[in-house]
Amino acid sequence: MALAASNSNNNNTANPKNNMFGSEISSQHSSEIINFYKNKTIFITGATGFLGKVLIEKLLRSCYNLNKIYVLVRSKKGASPNQRLDEIFNCKLFETVSQYCPEFRSKVEAIQGDLVEPNMGISDEDEKILINSVNIVFHSAATVRFDEPLKVAVDMNIIGTKKVVDLSKKIKNLEALIHVSTAYANCDRQHISETVYNPPVQPDRIIEAVDWIEEDLVQLLTPKVIQERPNTYTYTKAIAESLIVQECKDQLPCAIIRPSIVGASWREPFPGWIDNFNGPTALFAAIGKGILRTMMGNFNSTADIIPVDIPVNLMIVAGWYTGAKKTKDINVYNCTTGQINRLTWGMLERCSFDSLMKNPLENIFLVPNPRFTSYRLVKFLRHLVEEAMPSYVMDLYLRLIHKKPFLVRVQGRIKKAVNTLEFFTSTQWEFTNDNIYMLIEEMNEVDNKIFNIDVRDLHWKSYIEQYCLGTKKYLLKEDMTRMNHCRKQLFNLVRLRKIMFSLIAVFVVKMILFRSVSFKQLCYFLFRMALEFANKFTKLLSRI
Ligand SMILES: NC(=O)c1ccc[n+]([C@@H]2O[C@H](COP(=O)([O-])OP(=O)(O)OC[C@H]3O[C@@H](n4cnc5c(N)ncnc54)[C@H](OP(=O)(O)O)[C@@H]3O)[C@@H](O)[C@H]2O)c1
């Protein structure tokens, strides 16, 4: 039986129309999209994930007159689907919607299930409810781990998608099935259009293969199987797209969304919201703590980051467009920024450095100093001198004072995560975005405001500043009132670094000095000049 999300018994449950945001309320009558979602029933997979949570929040806040949202949730770590939903609804993300529309919980119901189980683990009773009531399906669930064993990735990303399609085929009044893929599904190509390409292997063949081949052997064969693709994630997502075309073309109203690297929110429900360490978030946290100082990456390559509110709005807009316009084709939407409003890894490096120096994190290990490099040797040397050696020294110190060492371990983990990203920081792709522009044209002015999918006026420097602040506040859960204390900590570290460099320089010069007095004098003179220059240069930099 569908489990009802716990209901708020708060009496402050006035008509949601009066509770929604002014701009959205005053314009609701001219919003085609809000009208489309009126009284609609929605089914979401991946609702407990990063995109899923933001999608539910946005639907509840902007399409408040929808009928119901069913979400597929599995039990996890002893928590039932309902308990998991309660926990999500109590988080900061839902503060705005719970303030203006406290009864929102009654609109969301958990359906107990698991994509890897037969029939998604959904009970017959729940399946009946879904078949009879659902109008729009958003399929967002996936394993997004890059290094997932091929068998697990196939099970989740390909077979799981097939199960969602099978259920969608049974739904009586389906108006749209929105499948969330990734912009990197076709990362073996340089130019990626909004089309589904031929898969590396037919879906049924890979499903059959992983079914009968021993798990160890599948693992052994994986590099051969995935060929030019960097990981099992992009490989299985590419095949899932083909499966969607094979299974849905001329049968189901369907669209595919392909976000690039999804980052913290730009504007909605508030700037900088983030709740996981995926993608650049891990980089910002590790750079901010001074633990990560170098990684492979091309300074001039595009860093295709998309704020989470954009793919979420796009999912809702694509649902409307597919359902209301009764599109015949399976539209693909490249939800990317590179060709619309370009950010490079070099810009990201500079902006994150500026932001993390302005708003430092707590308990910094070393002064933040991120550097992308295209040379493995440079990376290796910097890693050795600036990451590995200080971590070993620090861990040794911790041992000496009878505390548990942790830096080498943390560094190892970060390196592992960073290595999986390096393919994406060292390569760049060109995406076409014609279908995004088409949607912007098709939406009226009001909908373009409420369901913004246009990133042309995204200001990257301010966005990255908000992103780094969001990482500190929402993810690392640091106390923002201690910002001045953090700034003092950073200032002391900078001073300490200067003193250390000066001492090292003096020591080195003393060691290598010839005994000749005139040479000694010349060296002292040059050293003083260098120090003066360094001082002026530092001051100049701090003014920029
Ligand atoms: N984040 C990105 O940068 C990015 C970029 C491009 C595309 N995408 C795509 O966007 C979609 C959502 O990504 P995300 O970042 O939100 O991922 P996420 O935070 O890892 O969330 C994954 C979701 O899938 C659910 N899930 C995993 N295994 C499941 C299973 N066996 N049964 C039922 N549900 C299961 C998870 O549920 P549990 O909470 O129970 O684990 C969670 O709700 C994915 O399709 C991904 O490929 C993401």
Task: Record keyword descriptors for this entry.
10% strand, single chain, 2 domains, binds NADP nicotinamide-adenine-dinucleotide phosphate, 544 residues, Rossmann fold, 21 helices, disordered N terminus, two-stranded parallel sheet, eight-stranded mixed sheet, elongated, alpha/beta, 14 strands
The span between the termini is 61 Å
CATH architecture label of the largest domain: 3-Layer(aba) Sandwich
- The domain tally reads 2
| Mean pLDDT over all positions | 89
| Topology, number of strands | 14
CATH homologous superfamily title of the largest domain: NAD(P)-binding Rossmann-like Domain
Spatial strand arrangement across the major sheet: 1-4-3-2-5-6-8-12
The number of helical segments is 21
- Give the ligands present: NADP nicotinamide-adenine-dinucleotide phosphate
Shape assignment: elongated
In a few lines, what is going on in this structure?
With 544 residues, the chain is of the alpha/beta class. The chain folds into two domains: 3-271 and 302-341 and 429-457, NAD(P)-binding Rossmann-like Domain (Rossmann fold, 3-Layer(aba) Sandwich); 483-543, no CATH class. The chain is built from 21 helices and 14 strands.
